[in-house]
Amino acid sequence: MSCRRKRTGQHCPWWAVLALNLVVALPVSAAPPDVVWPDGEQPLLAGPGGDTLSGEQILAVIDSEGLPDDPRLLGRALRVLRMTPASQRDAHSWWLQGRIEQRLHRFDSASRALARASALAPDNLSYLLEQFYVALAGGDGTQAKVHCDRIGALQASLLAASCAAQWQLQFASAEQAQALIEKALASAGRGNEVALLDALITRADILSRRSDDGAIAAWLRVLSRSPENHYARDQLARQLLAARQYADAETVTRDHQSLGLLVSRLIALRALDDPRATPLQQRLMREFRLARWRGDGLHRNEHVRFLAQVLDDKPAALALARQGWQEAPTPENRRVLLQLASQMGKTTLVSALIRDVRQPRPETGEASF
Fold first, then answer.
1. How large is the average pLDDT for residues 147-176?
2. What is the rounded CA–CA span in Å between residue 281 and residue 292?
3. How far is the C-alpha of 67 from the C-alpha of 34, rounded, in Å?
4. What is the pLDDT of residue 45?
5. pLDDT recorded at residue 26
6. Contacts with 242 (C-beta within 8 Å, 6 or more apart), sequence order
7. DSSP state of 23
């Protein structure tokens, strides 16, 4: 799963967005897609006054610009955080480190950092919620349940119902998850907007996983409340493509630069016979080739999708999905591999994945891939 903070749309201070001469001290050719630097100017990690940006401000630039998570940027954010001795760091600093480690798919390291944040601020719901989503993304159902129960003990609220429904979706029953979140939303009054948004995202996730006809409307409802929510936009684009609403998918993905949205946009443009598909396809081929050369696996599942749905090279896609599952047997990697294997008729692999005790069987609706 993508970073939950992206899902809730809670970004860091926005002033750092203006510092587009920052990012990292790397050659211009290695900059993230569509970041254009002035001729001869090296991108620097500095703010408007020349001060070094904090780890939080680096995340602000990534989030607000909708850039793909780049291990070079995220690694630099970690190094900035670690410049402060561990004994002098506060809970917020450890929480930020946990978020960054999660986005690097280092779930064990993320859990340890977030545990230190919670130890310094045991009643902070944000820290507990982040711990829950790290455990969920890493496939640790036991720890996810512990964190969700702690949230419920602190606050029997829509937030607690949302995390319980997410747990049900991942480790038990999508049907039970939907019943739980629908009941919670029906009885929710006017309260915390963050909790409501989180619950609406959970509901949309469930409908998407179940290939429910209401998924598109559910994601539109999320975006109406949080227009800059990149996760919701990405999921909406996938649902529109699954429904063959290619013109709407093109509109939704226009002017957005995350890799998930770019792949969705390319699929839509190709379906519409739009000439803009050709340069975009060439650009993505270059990006994925460079990522593999660097050993960057953060966007491997987008590469799998590109191979399978754009290049129609399902054997290569299956090999890459297997690699992702072997390196990190997370629920998301398993879901991608299971779906692709199902589409290709690889019954032995499908049976092995279903029997695998690391995760219960997920739903395999087309739009989740």
1. 89
2. 17
3. 9
4. 41
5. 28
6. 211, 365, 366, 367
7. S
